[in-house]
Structures are given as structure tokens and as C-alpha cells.
Amino acid sequence: MKRYRPGLITLTCALLIGLVAVSCNSPAEPSTNPTPGGLVIAWFNGNSYTVDLYFPESDTLITTAYTTGDIPNDILSYEDNRIAVLNSTSSTVQVFDVNSTGGELFHIDLPSGSNPYQMSWDGNYLWVTLLLTAQVAKVDLSSGGSVSIIDIKANPTSIASTGSRVFVGHGSSYPDPSVTGGITVLDASTGNLVDSIDTPDNVNFMRYFSETDRVHAMTSIYDANDGIISIVDPISMQILSQVNTGGSPGFPVETGSGYAVGDGWSSGSIYFYNGAGVLTDTWDTGAASTCGLACIDDTVYITDFIDDMVYVADWTSKVILDSLAAGDGPQGILTIER
Q1: What is the Cα–Cα distance from 142 to 118, expressed in whole angstroms?
Q2: For the residues of 6-66, what is the DSSP string, one character each?
Q3: pTM of the predicted model, to two decimals?
Q4: In what order do the strands lie in the sheet with 292-296?
Q5: Is the CATH code 2.130.10.10 the one for domain 3-336?
Q6: How far is the CA of 78 from the CAs of 97, 126, 139, 190, 285, in angstroms?
Q7: Which of 16-25, 183-192, 276-285 is the least confident region?
């Protein structure tokens, strides 16, 4: 049995029946040579402190393409084929270029002991929640970039930025037992408090979808099977609808005209829902866990933290097509179109 540590919190994963995959790709060794061309699938491994890269066009898997800091917590892509990895106990943001493997381009230090938790890129700045110090960091994501610190309500976990506003979700009871959830809204230019939004307890993940101009907030108490997705209008700051998924939904992704979200460490299920807040389908993939999803056209990539695999599936037909041998504890995953 493995343990996942989001920041400094340790959560036990229940071991379920594993998935029988169609095939398994042979990994390549990292090098300083240019990486293969085309689409990139990148994920971080929370237990081995590494990032793996997969290139679908050449069917090339590079394991341990990069080494992260201690306890990586989040990953995102931004301009110029770069990815940022947030490290919790080493309190850093590392920047890598997916055009080559090996070392980092640079890193930015965050306050020591702050437990950086999640991050969001608004096109100009990186926003980071600092769980243990009840703060948010606004980071100029360039070599030697500045870091501004903003005080906020306790237990900041998830974060989403629209460019003009920053939405900060709050966890339940840790480290401050008096705070159980909700969303704080900040003005992105000043950092001032704009408003707050009442949500169900424990806002674990958030994502802003610019195409529909909506913030999706994922709430659940782990092991309570009470997952709810709240769809928020960032202008009126009202909850427009809520999707009762059960389980513990993670980061959502777009799938055609709708959305999909994995059940995290609760099960191997994926929930499908639409923008109106209707749960349209549930797929039991057979995986031990569905911690992260990345989608490109009809293909979805699924990280299985428990079995150290990334599955390649057709989300329209609900069929697993392939499997990729990941590092220890694959979690956050993303696609980069070069």
C-alpha cells in the first residue's frame, strides 16, 4: 500500500483490482538531446520526485526526464513549451523546457515552511497557495522573478485565475480547524479581497475554463464519497449549478462539449458532466485510481497513482488502448501541443 502526501498531509490509498492493459511501452533514458517532435504528455511522480514525458507521434516514453524538488504537488504548462512544477517541502517552483531533458532551466524560491500546494497561470503571473502560512504568492515566472505575498484566510489549497480575479479554495480543518471550506476572491492587480463564495466543505481542486468563462470547484471530504462540483460565474461570483459525483473528484478536463474528472484516490472511476451541471455518465475504468486526466481530441491519459501506470483511453467508447509505465506515484498530468 502506498501513501500520497499532498503537501504535508498524508492520505492512505485503498488498493483496488488493477487494470489489464493492452501493451506497455519501453521507456527511454533521459539525455541532453532534443526531445521528439509533436504533442507532449507530461506528468509528475509524487513518490519518486520525477517528471516523465511521452511523445505519442513517435510512441516514445522518457522516464525521469526531470528530477523535481521534495514532494511535487502540481504541474502546469505555460508559454514557450515550458512546464512549471511546484514542490511542497522544498518550497520551490521549478521550470523545465520540454524540448530537451535533463536539468531545470531555473527555479524560484517560495517562503520556507509555507507548504506550496497548488498553482495557476493567468498569462502574466503564477499564483500559488501557501497552505501552512495562510497566504498566496504572486510569482513573476522568469529567471530571477519577483515573489509577492498576500495574506488570506487559513487553509488555502486550490486556486484558479481568470486574469482579472483570483479564486482561492480553502480546505477543511487543516491546519486551522475553524476553517472548513469556501472560496476567497481576490483582485489580481491589487491582491485585495473582492468577495467570498460559500461552497461545500473542503475545496480540493479548481480550474478556470476560459472558453466558457466558468470556474469549476471540486469539493469532498476524503473517504466520505460526497464529491460535488460547483460551477461558478467569475463575474457575478454566484454558483450556477452543482454536480453530485460522489467520490473525490480531482482536476477536470474538457472532453468535446463537456467535461471529465477522475475520482482521485477513491476509485478508478471517471465522471462525465456538462456545463449545465448535469452528470451525464460514469465510467469504471478498472484502474486502481484515477488521479489525473489529460485530454486531446478523443484520447484521454489517466494517471494511476497506486499501480504506477498511465493509461491511454478513448473516452468516447470507454476503452483502454494502451499503458505507459510511469515512475513511482504518477499524479498531475497535462498535454502540450508544440
Answers
A1: 18
A2: STT--EEPPP-PPP--S-EEPEE---SSBPPSS-EEEEEETTTTEEEEEETTTTEEEEEEE
A3: 0.91
A4: 24-25, 319-325, 309-314, 299-304, 292-296
A5: yes
A6: 10, 10, 13, 23, 30
A7: 16-25
